[in-house]
Amino acid sequence: MSRFKKLTLIHSNDMHGDFMSEMVDSHLLGGVSMLSGYISNVRKSEENVIYAVAGDMLRGSVIDSEFKGLSTIEIMNMLTVDVASVGNHEFDYGTAHLLLIEKCARFPIVSANIYVKNRMAHLFRSHYIKKIGGMKILFIGISTDDILKMTPDGENISNFIDIRSAVDEIQKICSRYKSSDIDITVLLTHIGFEEDKKLASLIDSEIGVDLIIGGHSHTFLEKPCVINGIPIVQAVTGTDQVGRFDITVDTYNNKIHSYTWELIPITPENCPKDPALEEIIKKYKNITDIKYSRYITRTSRVLKNESRKCESEVGMVFADALRDYFELDVVMIASGSLRADTLGEIVEYGDLLEMFPFADELYRLTLSGKLFKKVITHVFRKEALEGQHTEFYQYSRGVQITVSEKEKRITSILFNGNDIDDDMILTVGIQGYHYKNSEKCLGLTSDEMSQIKPCRLIAARDNVIIDEYLSSQELIKAPVDKRWIVI
What predicted TM-score, i.e. pTM, was given to this entire model? Predict the structure, then answer.
């Protein structure tokens, strides 16, 4: 038997039902049809090929929402996925529905650290061994504890699901297979890039973890980040690109002898379309096009939503809509709840749901000026400005925050052009997820949020309110005021 063998490992993460190609700077980019074409080409040209997905296959497109992920799993089956890990958005349609989706998948979905409390049993398969070309590749799934904060349809999954220590679970599984001639071990994680780095630093080198393929933070990398001898990678988000390892495996010593990694753009030049997959997408799209083609409004020009980490024209419009509708002083829209790059000039119902798919609750907080400044200071804390996976927000008009990029700190917080007094009272609109996880997201305890008045639920579905508000407006313009200034 040859000692050195070739393995090609293709990977995606945070696809969020991103089925369709799009035009970017006059170039066609992404979509599962061309992604499928690329994977098929690689499988034809290379001998040993594995395609893995690091969580969040579901939620983010109209098609996925309409069919509650069942369309996505059919398409992922056609993409010939070999193994996938569990992301937090896999739980968006409820735990019972996720278990149905798992049964529809023709590939294993793994997570080693999600347990059912009363049985002390894994909710999913903890790991999967892929046998290929005379090699054994061990995949271990690791999921973020953010799933415990997801409460779709009022379901409190923390009552019956537990997230165990990732390091302990990895060591248990690797120890179990120490004598099984596993050639390489891959952690297929959905915990975020910074947490991947922490995880790698805690893993004993004797355990034998070779790679970490991650997701959750949508991180762009030009090359693998190597921590404790373990390369860590992500493939950003969606289907605009895919990660590729070309690995030489030392089967005598059960380790990686050498590797190269690159992020491959999914473009027509190297990714032919898959006609069979396009027919499946067309079937679903024809149904959703009829249902979601209701006209809402139009914009004076295309509105942009370029990044979670900067001001968004779409986010400002949505924040203003909720502010005006509920007559609040401030609304903060989580940047991560905005999912498309642009909106307009014609806005149909389907466009709105593509941009803002999650239908979260909205809570009204009554905060002192001192506590509001504490929130903003927490959001723009040094760790966040240095790139830690966190949540930034889009603000309604009247708020102006100035941040020094060099000093990694806030230099001013203004409301209606004036400094905010500690004793000022502000009514603030916050989405349900962020209200329920206020210490992590806002830096406030529940007691602090209710210090002046009890917090109040004012909307069960924020995107329904935005739909109603925008439907009453015409020729919406992009805000010209700056609310989040970086100097």
Answer: 0.82
Q: Which of 224-228, 280-284, 305-309 has the highest mean pLDDT?
A: 224-228
The separation between CA 275 and the C-alpha centre of its own chain, rounded to angstroms, equals 28
Indicate the number of domains in the chain: 2
Question: 351 forms bridges with which residues in the sheet?
Answer: none
Give residue for tokens 């393995």: 7
Provide the CATH number for the domain around residue 338.
3.90.780.10
Of the three residues 253, 284, 315, the one that is the final residue of a domain is 284
DSSP string, 191-250: S-HHHHHHHHHHS-GGG---EEE--SS----SSPEEETTEEEE---STTSEEEEEEEEEE
Read off the tokens for 485.
């200034």
Q: Taking 80 as the threshold, does the pLDDT of residue 152 lie above it?
A: no
The secondary structure of residue 328, as a DSSP letter, is -
Residues 6+ apart with CB under 8 A from 168: none
pLDDT tens, 40-59? Answer: 999 999 999 999 999 999 98
- pLDDT-derived band at 24, boundaries 50, 70, 90: low
- Residue 125 belongs to domain spanning: 4-284
Q: Are residues 333 and 422 in the same domain?
A: yes
Are both 113 and 238 inside the same structural domain?
Answer: yes
- Say whether both 408 and 269 belong to one domain: no
